[in-house]
Write a structure and sequence with these properties.
mainly alpha, 8 helices, 67% helix, 0% strand, globular
């Protein structure tokens, strides 16, 4: 699931990733930054932006603590990937407020997102515009 997020986002296949989340125990998801990112995208697509921001704070705290991202945990060590998702989600949450930090978040997301992340990059460009 963690490795397939980009492909599922590019297809805009929300039912697929919400089905993924329902297959796992909540306590397992809460310890995995990438799985929390999957949940954040699901919340964003259902326009639950306050919940998204709360979850992003949780992801950042988990990354600072180490969580299930320690060597030997089986978690991918692509912390930059999590940072890309956080920047994009923050941009999505603030883009509608004039004078907000949306442009900075969008530029951060675009700087971090590889070209292959078509859906996410498109969102960052949209929010930036």
């Amino acid at each position: 699931m963690e490795q397939g997020l980009r492909a599922v986002l590019d297809r805009e296949d929300r039912p697929h990733w919400t089905r993924w989340l329902r297959m796992l125990p909540e306590e397992f998801i809460r310890r995995r930054p990438w799985l929390l990112m999957v949940e954040a995208f699901a919340l964003q697509f259902s326009y639950q932006l306050p919940a998204v921001w709360k979850l992003l704070d949780q992801i950042e705290a988990l990354l600072q603590e180490g969580g299930e991202t320690a060597p030997g945990s089986g978690a991918p060590h692509d912390f930059a990937g999590v940072a890309r998702g956080i920047a994009l989600m923050r941009a999505a949450g603030v883009h509608h407020r004039p004078g907000s930090s949306a442009i900075a978040y969008c530029e951060e997301a675009l700087a971090l997102l590889p070209e292959g992340w078509r859906y996410a990059r498109g969102g960052a460009v949209l929010y930036w515009a």
